[in-house]
Amino acid sequence: MIRLLSLLAAGLALGAAPALAAGPDLGQVQQSATNWPAIGMFLFFVLFTLGITYRAAKGSKSAADFYAAGGGISAGTNSLAIAGDYMSAASFLGISGLVYTSGFDGLIYSTGFLVGWPIVLFLIAERLRNLGKFTFADVASFRLDQTSIRIISATGTLVVVAFYLIAQMVGAGKLIQLLFGLPYLYAVVLVGALMIIYVAFGGMKATTWVQVIKACLLLGGATFMAGAVLYRYGFSPEKLFATAVQTHPKGDSIMAPGGLVTNPIDSISLGVGLMFGTAGLPHILMRFFTVSDAQAARKSVFYATGLIGYFYILTFIIGFGGIALLMSDPSYFKLGADGTTYDKIKDMIGGTNMVAVNLANAIGGPYFLGFISAVAFATILAVVAGLTLAGASAISHDLYAQVFARGRTTEKAEVNLSKASAVGIGIVAIVLGYIFENQNVAFMVGLAFSVAASCNFPVLAMSILWRGTTTWGALIGGLVGLVAAVTMVVLSDAVWVKTFGHPVALFPYANPALFSMPLAFVTIWVVSTIDRTRRGNRERAAFDAQYVRSETGIGAAEAHAH
Amino acid sequence: MSVVHTAGPPATSDARTLHGAGALDMPEPDHRLDRVSQHPIFQTLVQERNRYAWVLTGLMLFVYFGFIGLIAFDKALLATKVGGTASLGFYMGMFVIVFAFILTGIYVARANTRFDRLSADLARSLAK
């Protein structure tokens, strides 16, 4: 994850690259020439989604409408929205770029991102739908103390959202600078403003449909690209691989695991973070409350797993297509002093994150390039909107309604506060995006996954699955996991050495999840076991009621549709 | 299954009436819950489904961490050529992706038939 994002950031840091479609003679241009086909298509997307937001806003009145789209989303639609939340620009551009640079190693991420989904399905999805209403804190606090559990869940949510959002905002600014030729600040403000509009006016309904449309566009565009690549090689992957191996400077080694994960512990820790982080991402967990019942939740994960797996296979083909079709074409590279030589990896115009974008040009010309650029922008927009909604829900539904107002508030006041929070989060995201423009934000998505795996997931899983869990156990365990994950990342090479400039990293691995997640589970277990308070006993006794409802849905919140 | 008398901590029950998904959302009185948890169909459903889910979870963990373990400890094996250019690692990676999807399919197929039927039987039996 960290390495992937550092590739993304490194690529994007080369924002001073010439126009994508232009020849190499442009040299150092601060920002690319304005890309009109891309801007036109993107404007069309924005107008269309704003129309959807307007319609959603007219139909959204209750809290259930705002947080859970009235519970009326079908399994098929929800699976596209889940897949959309997951297929971020980092997945699309980052993984195809990673495949382009190192071949096989890209698969490590693709598989890691995917294998969390079966776990979500088998252990979490149906129970979540049966127990909860709007946020995963509803579920974790079902039989535990509302105040404590909502505080730890909301904190975990906001930390995940903050790091994820900063990384997306900075990536968005750089990407838009590169793709559309807009200045960084404009790009960040534009993304922030649009996500505020989607979330504050359209709530979950608009956020879901924006995500669905983007997922269809992205899957369609990627399918076309991968299909066109395979078409050139007579639909024989073997021919594609053979050409790629001949063209790539690393030759045959791109078909084998390389230097991406050198340390065994680190690769396993990465796997743990990717796998279980998925089951703790708040904006993903929220999607299980938008469907009518546990059956629909189950089906949406099944379809989503298929869509996401298919998408990662496409990015792999696109990465190899980039090797085979772009590497021997000098027009996609900045040429050296003699005008003919270039480094096939370092000199790619726009950096290796632009592989998919450059390949779009090679395959479909400037209009398809414009289409893919617009899709990449739409992708970022949809993902930040989902994150903002998750953050706003944690503030209004968990912190305000249950902790500060202690349930003595009206639905209307809560929804209004949620809308205000969305505006606040949007403004904070714009400011942070601006502040972090030239910082290394590569570690932040990795940190978000680690926190999700070490705080949100253990609290949620233990409260649903283990009778013995008490409030003290979940609270302290979640806190320990959160602090451990953040501390380990801060002491690791990415922050301690690269950002703070200390000579040696105090934590030797890039990914903390292998240590911080078990620590959280063990802490929950130990503290719950020694918790002999009367409240603890009551909570253990209340497990049976929760168990019946989580397994059968008897008494579960009905579909909220009017 | 022990007998449940409290549906939730009374101290926080006022917080649950308006918004929370707390236990007070549950319309059933306590004796009904007890009837459910003691019901033979409920016990069959829960036992079967939990066993199924944990076995599939175990399989997924085994396959994925097996793959990651090979990347970590035996890179040479994964570099072995299978057929022409494609390596064993490539096929294994693709297998992990397809396997994850198939596992979810197996679970859903089972849940749609067996578990949903058990749930429906349980609901019918409780309605009597």
UniProtKB/TrEMBL annotation, chain A:
<feature type="transmembrane region" description="Helical">
    <location>
        <begin position="268"/>
        <end position="289"/>
    </location>
</feature>
<comment type="similarity">
    <text>Belongs to the sodium:solute symporter (SSF) (TC 2.A.21) family.</text>
</comment>
<feature type="transmembrane region" description="Helical">
    <location>
        <begin position="367"/>
        <end position="395"/>
    </location>
</feature>
<feature type="transmembrane region" description="Helical">
    <location>
        <begin position="107"/>
        <end position="125"/>
    </location>
</feature>
<feature type="transmembrane region" description="Helical">
    <location>
        <begin position="472"/>
        <end position="497"/>
    </location>
</feature>
<feature type="signal peptide">
    <location>
        <begin position="1"/>
        <end position="21"/>
    </location>
</feature>
<feature type="transmembrane region" description="Helical">
    <location>
        <begin position="301"/>
        <end position="327"/>
    </location>
</feature>
<feature type="transmembrane region" description="Helical">
    <location>
        <begin position="66"/>
        <end position="87"/>
    </location>
</feature>
<keyword id="KW-0812">Transmembrane</keyword>
<keyword id="KW-1133">Transmembrane helix</keyword>
<keyword id="KW-0739">Sodium transport</keyword>
<dbReference type="InterPro" id="IPR038377">
    <property type="entry name" value="Na/Glc_symporter_sf"/>
</dbReference>
<dbReference type="Pfam" id="PF00474">
    <property type="entry name" value="SSF"/>
</dbReference>
<keyword id="KW-0472">Membrane</keyword>
<feature type="transmembrane region" description="Helical">
    <location>
        <begin position="151"/>
        <end position="170"/>
    </location>
</feature>
<feature type="transmembrane region" description="Helical">
    <location>
        <begin position="442"/>
        <end position="465"/>
    </location>
</feature>
<keyword id="KW-0406">Ion transport</keyword>
<protein>
    <submittedName>
        <fullName>Cation/acetate symporter ActP</fullName>
    </submittedName>
</protein>
<feature type="transmembrane region" description="Helical">
    <location>
        <begin position="509"/>
        <end position="530"/>
    </location>
</feature>
<feature type="transmembrane region" description="Helical">
    <location>
        <begin position="37"/>
        <end position="54"/>
    </location>
</feature>
<feature type="transmembrane region" description="Helical">
    <location>
        <begin position="176"/>
        <end position="200"/>
    </location>
</feature>
<feature type="transmembrane region" description="Helical">
    <location>
        <begin position="416"/>
        <end position="436"/>
    </location>
</feature>
From TrEMBL, chain B:
<dbReference type="Pfam" id="PF04341">
    <property type="entry name" value="DUF485"/>
</dbReference>
<dbReference type="InterPro" id="IPR007436">
    <property type="entry name" value="DUF485"/>
</dbReference>
<keyword id="KW-0812">Transmembrane</keyword>
<keyword id="KW-0472">Membrane</keyword>
<protein>
    <recommendedName>
        <fullName>DUF485 domain-containing protein</fullName>
    </recommendedName>
</protein>
<keyword id="KW-1133">Transmembrane helix</keyword>
<feature type="transmembrane region" description="Helical">
    <location>
        <begin position="52"/>
        <end position="73"/>
    </location>
</feature>
<dbReference type="InterPro" id="IPR052959">
    <property type="entry name" value="Inner_membrane_assoc"/>
</dbReference>
<feature type="transmembrane region" description="Helical">
    <location>
        <begin position="88"/>
        <end position="109"/>
    </location>
</feature>
